[in-house]
Amino acid sequence: MDDRTTLLIPVDKLVDFQPQELGALGPKFKEIVKSLDGALPSQIREVLKREAESCGQDTPTAKSFRATLLILRDYIDSGYYPLMQGDDLVLAPLLEAENADEGQRREALRKLYRQARTNALRIPGQRKSLERLLGSLTKSQYRSEECIASLADGPPELQLTVAGQGAGRAVWRAVRATWSMTPDASAPGREVSVVLEDRKFPGTPLGVAQFRNVVPEIRCRDSWLGLTSRNSEGGPGGFVDRLDGVADAKDRIAATAKVLTSLLDAVNPDGLPPIDLSGGTQQAESLQKLAARLRIAYNDARKLGQRELSRQLLAQTKRAETAAELSLGLAGLRACLESRNAAQFLRENVLMRRLVDSGLRKIWHYHMGFVALEMSVCGAAPPFGPMRAGKLAAAVAGSETVLEAWGRDRPLGQIAATVYRPEVRERIPNPGPLVVFTSGLYPGHSSQYNRATSGGRRWIRIGETRGFGSFHVAADTIDAIDEYNVATDGYSHITRAFGEGASARFRAIGKALSGLGLPDLRRHDTRRPMYALPLVNDPGGVLLGWETAGDVSGATAIDLAKQWWDRWVSARGAILAEQARCTPDLIDELAGMMREVGPAPDEPKRPDEPEQLTLAL
């Protein structure tokens, strides 16, 4: 896509942007957006940022105004263009143009990701961090040219280093910084970051990978596991499909019901009435009402600053909610056992699928922190992409180094330890890592995982995901959102407290968008391919109580390196090496990013430097 392209956007893809809570500043907002007609995205961005910075911040209305302008600016950065329809503002998603092919969409997405990264690197402190990474790398034993020549002749003596702190982490961050992603930041839950190097060339990374806890619900993934009775489009599938046409369908249902019963029996009874282990909708309704009362009491206690009482009330709320969902799941499974054909019964009965899903969801929530890994970062370090080092990084997911670092028998997480009694681990043992998941960045993007293997295991494509995220929401927008939320409520509802839900940042954005009456900036419609690397024959079957996992071991780094080199490099080593030599190395990439980000705020700007990166669609 370039500036000369006429983009055809379907009318049903237009997004209404009609802010509320602007009060006396509403006319000024209309005046600003009307002035944007026909401007380039980079010009629109600058106007919105300037107007947001110039408005006062000492009144709730001014804070609403500033947050609205910055949210609109982030929509522009995310590939939307503002259009006026009479007095109403609508946003046209440029990436949804009917006359854009997949290649053009991928290129536009790369630009969007790159701009998001550049904007983030301009945040105070991030540029200094980038400068330190470049400085430390130039002083190290970085030898990319020699490493390229060696890879052309034979497999590397692969060394996998878990990068926690110190020099290893600096190298990991240097590689990750070159990709079109926002800067590295800590996240809740477990993390294992790995640097790939050839022992012959220490300090010269071939690639990096990172593994984190999976997010709770991704429909195509959960359907593939069988931990939902819906398919990726929301119709019957997943658990239903696993029961269809098998002779032991009732035995499978009974085994899953046994898992739910064991979990229900292990729920901490503190604050709850006596629990009937057979479950049922009546018991679930009673527990849901109790949970609602406890939630109200919890909010009141927290608002009054009663920390200990609020902690107790929240724990009791989560226990009541968990027991209710397990009771619903048992009711649904019991109905399936009483039917003539369980698969057909579920396929035709939406209500029963909802009941069953309530129980399946609790199985997944109990297990997911232990059994599944999300490979959130994976790829080659410059200049080793042409040598297909990305496939080597993908292979590392099934290595013994990663599985050992992740842990095979970790203690219960904070939420599970509060909801369940300690003996839950005896009733429902932790089977250890069973599967690794990841997704591509772009529609149709599959080259890194296509036919990729890890020892005797193979990456498989399991569907596409469309979802939510907040990486594209800028830091100054988050600040404005937090100020708006506090001004609205008198105190901050959004915290990182146990049981409040994932990602305080994500929830804070959602609360502000709802209050301002704005469309959900967090939702993205980008279709990303999703992949799984099963570490056992049937990960979902293990979780549903149908199979046992057995001993799960990973491949050695040396074996993975030889398998990778034989499959992807040996036949074309000299050609691939020549392509790699023509690619900027890690030091060159970081230096280019420094130039792109520009000088620090206290440094003078050279006359030839632009004010910002321009996004041309």
Q: What do these coordinates show?
A:
- This protein has 617 residues and is an alpha+beta fold.
- The chain is 49% helix and 12% strand.
- The protein has 24 helices and 12 strands.
- It has helices spanning 26-34, 41-54, 60-77, 102-121, 126-138, 144-153, 166-177, 219-225, 239-243, 249-265, 281-303, 307-338, 342-348, 350-371, 389-395, 400-406, 414-419, 424-427, 475-489, 504-516, 539-543, 557-569, 573-581, 586-597; strands spanning 15-16, 80-85, 88-93, 158-162, 191-198, 205-213, 372-380, 435-439, 453-454, 457-458, 460-468, 523-534.
- The strands form 3 sheets. The chain has a 7-stranded mixed β-sheet, with helices on both faces. Strands 1-3-2 form a 3-stranded antiparallel β-sheet.
- Strand 2 and strand 3 (88-93) form a beta hairpin.
- Helix 10 runs antiparallel to helix 12 (307-338).
- The longest helix is centred in the middle third of the chain and has 32 residues, at 307-338.
- It starts with 14 loop residues before the first strand and ends in a 20-residue tail after the last helix.
- Mean pLDDT is 84; it is low at 491-502 and 603-617.
Give a short summary of the structure.
The protein is of the alpha+beta class. The chain has 24 helices and 12 strands.
Quick check: average pLDDT?
84
How far is the N terminus from the C terminus? 5 Å
The outline comes out as: globular
Q: Regarding quaternary structure, how should these chains be classified?
A: single chain
Largest sheet: 7 strands, mixed
Which strand order spans the largest sheet, edge to edge or round the barrel? 4-5-6-7-8-12-11
Tell me the number of strands: 12
Q: Quickly give the structural class.
A: alpha+beta
Number of helices: 24
Strand content: 5-15%
How large, in whole angstroms, is the Cα Rg? 26 Å
